[in-house]
Amino acid sequence: MQKSDKHFWEVDFAMIDVANAITLLANYIIVPSLAYGSQLALGALGITLVYAVLRFSNFAHGEMMSFGTMIAILMVWLFQSIGISIAPLPTALIALPFSIITTIFLLLILDKFVFRYYQSQRVQPVTFMIVSVGVMFFLAGFIRFIIGTSKKNFADGERFIIKASEFKQMTGLAEGLSIRTTQAITVIATLILVTAIFWFLNKTRMGKSMRAFSDNEDLALLSGIKPERVIIVTWMLVGALAAVAGTLYGLDKGYKPFVYLQLVLPIFAAAIVGGVGNPIGAVIGGYVIAFSEAFITFAYKRFLTYLLPDEWAPDGLVQLLSTEYKFAVSFVLLVIVLLVRPTGLFRGKTL
User: What architecture (CATH level 2) is domain 3-340?
Assistant: First the structure.
């Protein structure tokens, strides 16, 4: 073999190794983080709307997401029992409108009989926060009483858009890339919903009223804006976001009520990292948290083996933190942001 041919094959094998390394990251970090980040973004956007308009931290948001998911599961079971489906898409997509309506109804009831009383008394935000914790415990018990505590998978239809084995056959690479249907649905639904929310806030009369109410409540009242209507619309948006975010998360990862209580930490971290009260920051913060968790808990042994010479290949996992400490990453990022930039990435901007 001539020297030029040998050099060509060395370059070719190097490019294949790089392609394998990139595919590995895409399969285990990029694609899952896009889906998880979308779910966190919707959750953080709901928390941000409550904080910006109603001026309190809603610690019950995780359980509101869980409630919406529970309704979606019950509707999926009902549809499946009578033979209704939209295969190859998940049945949960036709159950989602019922989940949204029911969750909105629940939040309007909570507003009327719980939050509105404290609002009329003009209590401090810390009191609202404590009330939301009480609502959280009530919803947690109610949900577990209805649907139980065990994990429930309600995804049906076509499971994969592309399988790892199919990707290997098409490309000839050693690493495969799989994209689940639920992951694609999550990203697309988030893009549509976030675009609709921002259009509503910036282009409609009610959206502009919500922004005015958020900026200066007294001035908004003098301008003729009705606070009751603004509050109702806010809870409706929050209910829709909670139902969609919870259902998409459960559809992608399976539904277990206790997990939704744990989701409160990364969702709040996303909202704070992006900038408290800033919808754009909340969305971006969701992806920052998701990608941070994935990059920090990923084992880089195979990735480095592809890129480094054989004699430099690592023996250990090369993992900063175990996946069991995934939620700890959210806490650490939250603390760092509060110490370095307390107002978040988009400080000075509000709803």
Answer: Orthogonal Bundle (1.10)
